[in-house]
Write a structure and sequence with these properties.
Largest sheet: none
Structural class: mainly alpha
Radius of gyration: 27 Å
Mean pLDDT: 81
Distance between the termini: 50 Å
CATH class: Mainly Alpha
Order of helices and strands: HHHHHHHHHH
Strand content: under 5%
Helix content: over 70%
CATH architecture: Orthogonal Bundle
Number of domains: 1
């Protein structure tokens, strides 16, 4: 079809000018924005029903007051925090290790190109991943403290159960993105399914695996610091105790120590992932 030249002498050609969205699409977009605004107004009304705005208005004053009580931090309290901090690091590390060990088989069962059954086993593996990701580690810790009692074990298991979904999801996506040509090349040699997995798929996903593991360990360091609030051990237990007795200089020291730990763990994780990838 010969293109139409748009000139002042041919105004009818403007009827064929391309638009980014059709009228129907624009109408649907405006309806969507209207529904979103209506939902926001409804949620705002629900929130205001139980909100005491007198306390909200006084919040800046209270924040300044507590901040002034926190300064200066009680640095003499630092030696007492070393053991809880070590416990927190152990919770994060052992929880990450346990989560990875459970997530690897789940990831292979969830990936389309490695699952034994797309009808039965894959949906079950995906359900495990979704169930793990949908429950926060603090909730896992709260449940486990009630089941197996307070202590470090509850924190380790909580971190492990939370890590399954994160590691499993990213890992099974990496498995599905592997180069099929390498698998076909190994298969052409007469290799079995396990040999194809070992020599064609695993080498491709190893860099992603180590990167995911380090990234999750970095996240678990942060999550482990608050598990003590529900009795799962670690430095969060000291934080809760200091808040309960209004020892604000101690609270400031704990918060600064947590901040320093997170910064160091993030730096270590970034360096390791950069070296691997």
């Amino acid at each position: 079809m010969k293109p139409t030249l748009v000139t002042p002498d041919a105004p009818a050609a403007y009827a064929d000018v391309w638009t980014f969205r059709t009228p129907r699409t624009r109408l649907a977009l405006w309806c969507g924005w209207l529904a979103l605004v209506a939902l926001f107004v409804y949620c705002w009304q629900v929130m205001n029903a139980d909100t005491m705005w007198v306390f909200v208005a006084d919040a800046p004053t209270q924040a300044v007051d507590i901040g002034s009580r926190m300064w200066p931090p009680s640095l003499s309290y630092l030696p007492e925090l070393m053991k809880p901090l070590w416990d927190t690091l152990n919770i994060a590390t052992l929880g990450t290790l346990g989560g990875v060990l459970m997530a690897v088989p789940v990831a292979f069962l969830a990936a389309r190109n490695t699952t034994p059954s797309s009808i039965l086993i894959r949906p079950l593996a995906l359900w495990v991943i979704v169930a793990s990701r949908s429950i926060n580690s603090l909730i896992w810790a709260l449940l486990l403290v009630a089941i197996i009692g307070p202590g470090l074990l509850a924190g380790v298991v909580a971190i492990a159960l939370r890590s399954i979904g994160f590691v499993g999801k990213l890992l099974y996506e990496a498995i599905e993105e592997t180069d099929i040509r390498q698998v076909e090349a190994v298969s052409a040699t007469g290799a079995s399914s396990m040999q194809q997995l070992n020599y064609a798929i695993v080498p491709q996903i190893l860099p992603a695996f180590w990167g995911i593991t380090m990234f999750r360990w970095d996240i678990n360091i942060r999550e482990s610091t608050i598990l003590g609030l529900v009795g799962a051990g670690g430095i969060g237990l000291k934080l809760q105790s200091s808040i309960n007795v209004l020892a604000w200089p101690q609270v400031a020291t704990i918060l600064l120590l947590i901040l320093a730990t997170v910064i160091v763990s993030e730096w270590v994780s970034a360096r390791v992932r950069h070296a691997i990838l």
